Sequence to fold (458 residues):
Amino acid sequence: MATSIATKALEPRVAVALSGVLNLVGAFLSLAVAATIASGLVSTKLVTLTVVAAGLTGGIVWNLLTWLLGIPSSSSHALIGGVIGSTLAAAGGHAVLWHGLVSKVVLPAVLSPIIAALVAATGTWLLYRISRKLTNAARQHGFRIGQIGSACMVSLAHGTNDAQKTMGVITLALIANKTLASGSNAPFWVILCCALAISLGTYIGGWRVIRTLGKGLVEIESPQGMAAESASAAVILLSSSFGYSLSTTHVATGSIIGTGLGKKGAEVRWNVAGRMATAWVFTLPSAALVGAGAFALAHVIGGTLGVVVDLIILLAVVAVIYWKSRGSKVDHKNVNDEWTGSAAPAEPEPAAAA
Amino acid sequence: MSWINLSALWKIVVYGLIAGAGLPALFAIGLRALAWPGGARVQTAGAGAGSAGGDPTAADNNDRLVGGNVLGMLIAAIIFLVILAALGWCVYEVYQIGHPAVKK
Fold:
């Protein structure tokens, strides 16, 4: 959706609402990724509820930090990192299914943005080639309509991958608690809750990332927007059906860079891209460290109280970050302002409110 | 089990290119067919290869999409329907793959 807002194909609030609904649908569409998270990464026999809680603390703390900085680091990797970290701290290296981690998370993380960039560059080149006879204005207009369709597919794809991770973790917790048998699929109420949560989350919190993705990386026109979105949607949907838990943010970033490469004379802001890449490299290990730390803390205090302390820390971090983010608000009003080098748009002059 | 699933990888690349770059390209062809000029003037059967696409020097701020050629509009409509059908089929496939029978 980031790109269709940036090219003004959709009114921001409509775009985000639509995206929320489609995420909901997507969440029901494929459960392969949830299965990967729930039983493909850590040994479900060795995971306890404390481990899951500590893992979540690690993931969320790291996630919100990067979100505050406007870097679309992968929430999925933060989540996975957190769970891996706390599992390591709790049960040691043999509890982590390294093969699953590398083949279903790490390798897709490296490859998916490259594939997305390739597809988007090809698409961009084709679109400009085929539509070169159209007048510039007609081209912008036509692809703006096409973009609405491709953006919808991205939201759908997002639901098939990102909502699944939450489901996976909750399923993992239920398995740890022996509510579910090892190897079970996510029960219906879990699917529904996660689907609703991701829709709401998209509506409430997506603005900052939309801004970085839509405006920060390349200046895009509507044909590029459509190419980028189609590429993202295709790569995410395909990967989801193979159960690869990839980061939709990585893919979208790869696509947007690809669309910059596919058009002559388009400028790619490599320094922004570099900043993101750095954040990604650090995401898994950092979240794992925080997750391990959270487990250690819960373990030292012990029992239910330890878990409660973790959750209190978690809430405190969330509160602080939420409060801080109010200072440099990004919402439907300023999401498209001129890029000035940081995620937060320049302060509008009070008198300029004409 | 190998660390990298090559068969999944090439499927993602190939299908990704077909759906992610091919479908938008098809959409672009549809747009072009839609923009064929025509109106009263009937285009001959050779239009498919030619597709004059309007005078490129004509006012660049003219954003009208429909050129008025009936054949062009028909082709465009068919292309757009094909795209929608392809999307529907893709979503169905994903649904099929994504809901494996529950292992007990």
In short: The two ends of chain A are 29 Å apart (CA to CA).
